[in-house]
Recover the amino acids of this structure.
């Protein structure tokens, strides 16, 4: 299986850019911004959870394998149904 980059899953809802501006110091409460229009995209913690959900969705759909997914998601979470 090969995971395919899908910019629409990460694109800014305002301008469509698929890149972010990171703060100088990254911590769970750090705010991220769209690199295209500077819209606030939420916190680093929120962004990490969003990525976890995308990874789980890719694994659940068969588009990515648990072995190739690069994440810190516990294997029992990968094997359980999505919430």
């Amino acid at each position: 299986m090969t995971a395919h980059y899908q910019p629409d899953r990460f694109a800014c809802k305002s301008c469509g850019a698929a890149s972010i501006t990171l703060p100088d110091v990254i911590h769970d409460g750090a705010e991220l911004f769209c690199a295209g229009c500077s819209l606030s995209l939420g916190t680093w913690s929120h962004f990490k959870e969003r990525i976890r959900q995308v990874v789980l969705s890719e694994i659940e759909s068969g588009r990515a394998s648990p072995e190739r997914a690069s994440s810190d998601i516990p294997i029992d979470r990968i094997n359980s149904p999505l919430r």
Summary: The chain has one domain: 7-68. The radius of gyration is 14 Å. Residues 44-61 form the longest helix (18 residues).
